[in-house]
């Protein structure tokens, strides 16, 4: 059985060879990213996911901050050089999405629904993951590539100062995106028997 959504998912990979040669404008892509996040489901419709969408020098700043903070905790010159090359690859893209959870929303939901209070942090993460996949696949439909990075909490303070981030927003991931140069190889999947149980068929 063929399915357009599954076909789209099969085209989404972690792409690391990015460049800024895209046909879409920053405004078009920002609107696409915003819409993808708004259409993603969240528990109790809590809408706790937040995003900072950066282009040009603002996107570059994300990765300049990241490299500067990494250098503070790295002492091996060879490792720093290797890390710098990796960061430069992210910086070479067209933009970066910073994904956040608004912890004030989580606290409000916990107060409003105390019986479920312990679940809301997990549900916020689930909503965030759905938003990340939605953005990633929306970019894929535009012929663009992306990857999901996690340099938080190392960069949180400097990023917050650079982009005037509210105190209640907790950085959870960074997504560089752009045109794809050399496509990354598809990754293998573990055996279905280890992953799924199906009954009734």
From TrEMBL:
Residue ranges occupied by any Nitroreductase domain in the UniProt entry: 11-178
Signal peptide annotation: none
Cross-referenced InterPro entries: Frm2/Hbn1, Nitroreductase, Nitroreductase-like
Alphabetically ordered keywords of this record: Cytoplasm, Oxidoreductase
Keyword Cytoplasm: yes
GO molecular function terms noted in the UniProt entry: oxidoreductase activity
Single GO cellular component term: cytoplasm
GO biological process, one term: cellular response to oxidative stress
Superkingdom to which the source organism belongs: Bacteria
Subcellular location: Cytoplasm
PANTHER family cross-referenced by the UniProt entry: FATTY ACID REPRESSION MUTANT PROTEIN 2-RELATED
Protein name, UniProt field: Oxidoreductase
């Amino acid at each position: 059985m063929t399915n357009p959504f599954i076909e789209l998912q099969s085209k989404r990979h972690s792409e690391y060879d990015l460049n800024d040669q895209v046909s879409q404008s920053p405004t078009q892509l920002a609107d696409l990213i915003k819409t993808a996040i708004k259409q993603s489901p969240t528990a109790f419709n809590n809408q706790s996911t937040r995003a900072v969408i950066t282009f040009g020098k603002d996107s570059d700043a994300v990765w300049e901050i990241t490299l500067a903070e990494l250098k503070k905790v790295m002492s091996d010159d060879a490792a720093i050089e290797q890390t710098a090359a990796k960061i430069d690859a992210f910086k070479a893209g067209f933009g970066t999405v910073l994904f956040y959870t608004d912890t004030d929303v989580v606290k409000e939901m916990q107060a409003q629904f105390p019986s479920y209070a312990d679940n809301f942090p997990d549900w916020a993460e689930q909503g965030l993951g759905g938003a990340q996949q939605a953005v990633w696949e929306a970019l894929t439909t535009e012929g663009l590539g992306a990857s999901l990075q996690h340099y938080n909490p190392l960069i949180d303070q400097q990023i917050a100062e650079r982009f005037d981030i509210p105190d209640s927003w907790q950085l959870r991931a960074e997504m560089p995106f752009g045109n794809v140069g050399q496509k990354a190889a598809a990754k293998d999947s573990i055996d279905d028997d280890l992953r799924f149980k199906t009954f009734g068929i």
